[in-house]
Design brief:
Structural class: alpha/beta
Helix content: 40-55%
CATH architecture of the largest domain: 3-Layer(aba) Sandwich
Largest sheet: 8 strands, mixed
Oligomer: single chain
Number of helices: 21
Shape: globular
Number of strands: 12
CATH superfamily of the largest domain: Vaccinia Virus protein VP39
CATH topology of the largest domain: Rossmann fold
CATH class of the largest domain: Alpha Beta
Distance between the termini: 54 Å
């Protein structure tokens, strides 16, 4: 199974899920160990490759057990084959002093090359290491159902410790990894799983209860649900996506949420007739653009090996086209929020600034000013830039464009 994952043909979580479905005889402890091992290898692959001399999946697993988990040769003995003792000794003795910056940061060389244009080596090293740590479990409280303090108290009563997120006003950060999807508060729509950074992007949109709003790349609808709650279940909120399969995942979440102002619609592309009919009519447009996802490496460490300069170049063409088409929906005085979970300037600032050069009827609203209106203090300036080492969130970019 690890061999299949290391081909990087499919998302690691999908390959892992399929394997676990096919091996129902595995108990909870075995399943947890397999998941930890897979993602541990993916998170530390650069160091482990160096330690094993690119020795393949089995060598990487032994290296993870020996170096990351600290198992000694005696503890590893039940797993060893002939000749493995020498391999383990070599792994433990591997000299890391000559590692490159990219290897130490656990990032591909091409990613580090691009990030160095905007980060010092020390900042980049801290960023890479923070992206290699597992993400915490963040929840968003559905304010149509309950208040944050009451939800925290109810979770505590059931043995789950959750503290308020430091930035997002409706967020809770949970200790450990409880099975929250089986909890009554999840099942009745009182809480949804949503990273704090994703919640902050919705605060940039800042819809009111009377607005017409479009979530242009809605996917499974995490941000759609947050926007609907911010609108107090009033107004009209369209959830657009080109994937009917992704939108189907929104339906059970929508049913739990109690929202009635959300209208999911599958579109064929950014120039769909439904999009054109809304030209100049929409108060708020959120574009959570398809991107490299490099800001989500804490959750999806395989993405750094599944993306490439070529795939990013293709994405930037798509991002520019989506922003151009979606922005036409904004009415005068309307707001467009362009967002990605990428760390690369070419997917973020470059897309926005090229759009502004072509569209002089739009101007930038400073993210800090908008967030301050909601008592959120970040200090990121003109654009929203979130990183795990600074904010404890996934990596996100956001820009607010207002039509004059």
């Amino acid at each position: 199974m690890l061999v299949a994952i290391l081909r990087f043909e499919f998302p690691a979580d999908a390959v892992l899920s399929r394997y676990l479905r096919e091996h129902r005889e595995l108990g909870p402890a075995d399943r947890a160990f397999i998941a930890d091992a897979v993602f541990g290898v993916l998170r530390g692959k650069r160091l482990l490759d160096h330690a094993t001399g690119d020795g393949g999946a089995r060598a990487l697993l032994l290296a993870w057990l020996a170096r990351s988990q600290g198992l000694n040769t005696r503890e590893l003995e039940p797993l060893l084959r002939r000749g493995d003792a020498a391999l383990v000794a070599a792994i433990k003795g591997a000299d890391t002093r000559a590692l490159t910056l990219a290897q130490r940061a656990e990032l591909p060389d091409w990613v580090v090359e691009r990030l160095l244009a905007h980060h010092s080596e020390q900042d980049l090293l801290q960023l890479g290491r923070s992206l290699s740590e597992p993400a915490p479990l963040d929840l968003r409280v559905n304010t149509l159902r309950a208040k944050r303090d009451a939800v925290a108290a109810a979770l505590a009563a059931s043995g789950i410790n959750a503290t308020p997120t430091p930035l997002a006003p409706n967020g809770l950060r949970v200790d450990g990894r409880p099975a929250i999807n089986r909890h009554p508060l999840f099942l009745d729509g009182t809480v949804e799983v949503q990273d704090e950074g994703s919640q902050l992007l919705c605060s940039l949109v800042a819809p009111t209860r009377h607005d017409l709003v479009v979530d242009f790349c809605a996917g499974a609808g995490g941000k759609t649900l947050a926007l609907g709650a911010l609108m107090h279940n009033r107004g009209r909120l369209y959830a657009f996506d080109v994937s009917a399969a992704r939108l189907r995942k929104l339906q059970p979440r929508l049913a739990r949420s109690g929202l009635s102002n959300v209208h999911p619609q599958t579109i064929v592309g950014e120039n769909d007739l439904r999009v054109k009919r809304l030209a100049g009519k929409v108060d708020r447009v959120l574009i959570d653009a398809p991107c490299s996802g490099l800001g989500t490496l804490r959750r999806n460490p395989d993405l750094k090996w599944r993306q490439s300069p070529h795939s990013v170049a293709e994405l930037t063409l798509k991002q520019a086209a989506i922003l151009t088409a979606a922005a036409r929906m904004a009415k005068p005085g309307g707001r467009v929020v362009y967002a990605t979970c990428s760390l690369l300037a070419e997917e973020n600032e470059a897309i926005v600034e090229a759009f502004l050069e072509r569209n002089d009827d739009f101007s930038v609203l400073h993210c800090d000013s908008v967030l301050a209106q909601h008592d959120i203090t970040l200090g990121t300036g003109r654009y929203l830039r979130l990183t795990p080492q600074t904010h404890g969130t996934d990596g996100f970019f956001g820009a607010i464009l207002e039509r004059r």
